[in-house]
Amino acid sequence: MAGDPHSDGPALQLSLQGLSTPLSEVTFVVVDLETTGTSAHRHAITEIGAVKVRGGEVLGEFGTLVNPGTSIQPQITALTGITNAMVATAPPLASAYPAFLEFAGLDRADTVLVAHNAPFDVGFLKAAAATLGYDWPQPLILDTVTLARRSLRGQVPNHRLATLARYFGAATTPNHRALDDARATVDVLHGLLEQLAPLGVTHLADLPHAADPVPARRRRKSRLADQLPTSPGVYLFVDAAEQVLYVGAATCLRSRVRSYFTAAEKRSLIGPMLDLAHAVRHIECATALEAHVQELRLIAELSPPYNRRSKHPHRQKWLALTAETHPRLTLTRNVPLADVERAIGPFAGRRAGELAAAALTDLVPLRRCTTRLPAAPTATAQACPLLELRKCLAPCLPAAARPAWTHCQSDPVATAVSMLAHTPAALILPTLRQIRQLAEQLRYEEAGQVTARLAAFVRGAARAEQLRPLFAADQIVAARRREGGGWELVVIRYGRLAAVGVSGPGEDPRPLVAHLQATAEPVPAPTRVGGAASAEETGLLAAWLYAPGTRLVEVAGAVPLAVSISGASRHLTLLAGSPAD
């Protein structure tokens, strides 16, 4: 029924299983309401009609007049034929509404609520729920008016229900009575879905964006997902020459790939990629973790033109101390594993690393010059202005030539090593005090700059804290219980995923653990950070290991799999409002 097209629609909630449900298995509840007016807040429902269908078959019908508790105006009676006498003995909304909810089953994940001009009907249904104290079940809503505007452009003079019913040859003529209009809407719905099927609208996951403007040639390519499994894995879009265009990972391959051909996909680079795509290759994986690791490795190996992230994992830089007589901070890709305790990171960009370095040198008077200093200072050496600012102890000068205050300072290198490795709080806490003081003095711009430097340092230090134990571990075997029973098992060697397996519900996982340990990929002990796996892969594994519910089966290594309670990780929550690096 016609009404206010600007009413709020409900939120969309779909389960993972529901995403891949073919439309032939989806239950559609087609509803129509008659009311005393157009406002859900000022007017009332006089009739509810609904038809439940699945796979083209009518499963049931629901129809009832409703006593609105108020008089029906003559112009409404002239439109609908519903009189005050007809509703005088009808059930009130408090009885009719729960009966409709029981019939509709809108709380089921595979049920879709359909209406012609859905904002009007849904607005009244939601208002009724609020009035009667019911929770609105948040079903997926489909509006046949919106679908018709997209799929029948130029084919019909307007999108009224009567016009569309004639166009599709509906068995029932709409007459402004709720059940008859719902029956007519069922035939219109089926006609619209037939129009949209060649454009790739064939599954439940396609419906939320079925009416969105997506080029027809792109929607048709959704067939590329039809033969994909619903298991976790990696997908590769390839062109006609089998060149890989894009690599991604998914928990459900079919659903994820189908989503690329809907209006939900808004990334600017993906549209041109889809136009070039000729096929989708896939690699099934045992778990989502394995899929994401394989995705990282394939992106690094193939460097697909339409992937932006993870293409150059070894370009990420660490903030470390140089191996010199008088060390200084440097951003480097090359960190010996033996020196990883003296480094933090990695940082996605150089700017973040520079900010982290500034956070440290603000407090610690490390030298900042890039000149390689001799072991023994020369008699003619001259210090830079940082000495006068007390930001450097001038190791370039002979001891006798340095100011007296420099001899009272603690060793800046030892302090920096401690902050990088074990006690980042020694940097974090005084910097937080500085930020507070600046804010109290209304020096907000300076406070923001110091906060940005601190945020970069804390994030880099927290990453390093989580990665170091994995870099050093000969082998980690861990398990996580799967939803529905069984265990997800992994073997990690020097920060690299070496084996993964899944035990079934009720099975003893220990034989599988032994098998995975015996057959896991041999990983030679690396000498440098990233020698066995990219830091991004190790980061994925660390996040999995540290997540609640993970159980350690074995940890073989010199460094315990733990994060200090005084480390940087505990301070991450302070940075919730700071821009990520």
UniProtKB/TrEMBL annotation:
Task: Report domain GIY-YIG positions.
Answer: 230-308
GO term, biological process aspect, one: nucleotide-excision repair
Q: Which domain of life is it from?
A: Bacteria
> What is the protein's species of origin?
Buchananella hordeovulneris
Q: Which Gene3D superfamilies match?
A: GIY-YIG endonuclease, Ribonuclease H-like superfamily/Ribonuclease H
Give the protein's recorded name: GIY-YIG domain-containing protein
For this protein, the record's PROSITE patterns field holds:
GIY_YIG
Does the record carry Transport as a key word? no
**Does the record bear Oxidoreductase in its keywords?**
no
Q: Which GO terms describe its molecular function?
A: DNA binding; DNA-directed DNA polymerase activity; exonuclease activity
